[in-house]
Amino acid sequence: MNIARWLEASARLAPGAPALLTGTEVLADYAAFARRASGVAAALDARFGIAPGDRVGIFMANRTEYLEALYGILWAGAAAVPINAKLHPAEAAWILDNAQARACVVAADTAGPLAAAAPGLRLIGADTGEWHGMRATEGSATPAPRGDGDLAWLFYTSGTTGRPKGVMITHGNLIAASLCYPIDVDTVAPSDAAFYAAPMSHGQGLYTFVHTRMGARHVVPPSGGVDPDEILDLAPRIDGISMFAAPTIVRRLVQRARERGLTGEGIKTIVYGGAPMYLADIEEAITVMGPRFVQIYGQGEAPMTISALSRAMVADRAHPRWRERLGSVGVAQSCAEIAIADETGHRLPAGETGEILVRGPQVMAGYWRNPEATDRAIRDGWLWTGDVGRLDADGFLTLTDRSKDVIISGGSNIYPREVEEVLLEHADVAEAAVIGRRHPDWGEEVIAFVVPEPGRALDTGALDRHCLERIARFKRPKAYRVVDALPKNNYGKVLKTALRAEVEGEAGSGPAGG
Ligand code: AMP
């Protein structure tokens, strides 16, 4: 089924319900939203010859036209290629070329740079009169028929390493992932609002479908991005908002709420994930803002849908294993089967650490035009996530690391996450990232990059004592780099490859084992 049928359904059932908003201003109700999508679809065909199965890029920051474009592309039976607006135009051009996109929807600020980087590509300006003409075109009352296995969304992985790969997400994948949301993440009522601070090109954009099906509001903040003050000010005026936020964004939001003496009124739910949320940060978040948090663990290849830690589990301080569970990524979502395997694929029992495998109707169809990578990632129907973790007897999954992030020193595996958690418990440490550096005797040694809390000086001797009191000697960092900030990608993930590049060529000589 074409997932755009969910928009058609809401337009029939609740035509007058507010659908697209910028801030508090309603720009379209559901009838108008569906009419615009159907008009865009008709114009994509009539003006650009876009047919079912073609790919159409979207390269612009969050705005309501983004949703018109997304649904218009899907309504036409084509597949959307949403590209993070913060990417360099040359990176966007590379993605559009790899996707063999027939056209790309752009905004005033991305049009010029992309035109220069991708000469010959048809650009459709969402700020132009052409867009208004397109969405006013008389279109078909129903979306083009599509099968569950047809491509809907070509998602380029954020690529903390190497060139991004195009993850093929089908209509069936989107439907399965969306159906998990009300079961595993959060209820959605028509009075609720999906709030687009995080990029629509990523997880937040995937949450659009369930909100459309429920006839809820889609609200884009006027800034189109993450501005903690804007979020805190708008939330009570909109009410019932739910939003995805990477841990760094949660941190910024909580810090601002605390400074202003606010609790996040109007925010129903903050779904966090995408990178490790450290215990100290989520505890602080709950203290300041209360039970507004749900964690998800997913990846482009199984979009937002591997595991979830529910609101109750996040907030239930009275539970005897609350902290332990808070440090996990929760339990398998209802569409996901999770297994832990060693390198040979042999399944490991509860308590043992290995690569996380997932199977279910939400798992991607494969990588676009990359059968070798697909065969490596999907074996016997199971997706090999590249993440390392363990399940406990109750099915709670704890991530230890990306498999490539493991540090092996003197034959012992050290999971950076474990060391980072300990460093973050220190009051003077704001952020920490741990990597391995080549060592002549030990293979690798542990190096920590640490960002001090504002106005605090870091005493690395004190940090060393702090670690010695909490973790095995061989795990403690053998050298520290105090930095102002950690390098991060556009989604806020720490670029460990950049940190590794910084220490490459250096060979430590410290007492790595001691
Ligand atoms: P992406 O495909 O860009 O969404 O990145 C997915 C990766 O982010 C996963 O494979 C994990 O390594 C990481 N990730 C996602 N969710 C979480 C989470 N809740 N906690 C820790 N890491 C996460």
Automatic annotation (TrEMBL):
| Chain ranges of the AMP-dependent synthetase/ligase domain | 8-368
Start and end of every AMP-binding enzyme C-terminal domain? 418-493
Report keywords, A-Z: Ligase
Per UniProt, the enzyme's principal EC class comes to ligase
Q: Which reaction is catalysed here?
A: 3-(methylsulfanyl)propanoate + ATP + CoA = 3-(methylsulfanyl)propanoyl-CoA + AMP + diphosphate
Signal sequence span is none
Q: Name one GO molecular function term.
A: acid-thiol ligase activity
Pfam families found in the cross-reference section: AMP-binding, AMP-binding_C
Annotated EC: 6.2.1.44
Q: Which InterPro entries match?
A: AMP-bd_C (IPR025110), AMP-bd_C_sf (IPR045851), AMP-binding_CS (IPR020845), AMP-dep_synth/lig_dom (IPR000873), ANL_N_sf (IPR042099), ATP-dep_AMP-bd_enzyme (IPR050237)
Family classification: Belongs to the ATP-dependent AMP-binding enzyme family.
Q: What is this protein called in UniProt?
A: 3-methylmercaptopropionyl-CoA ligase
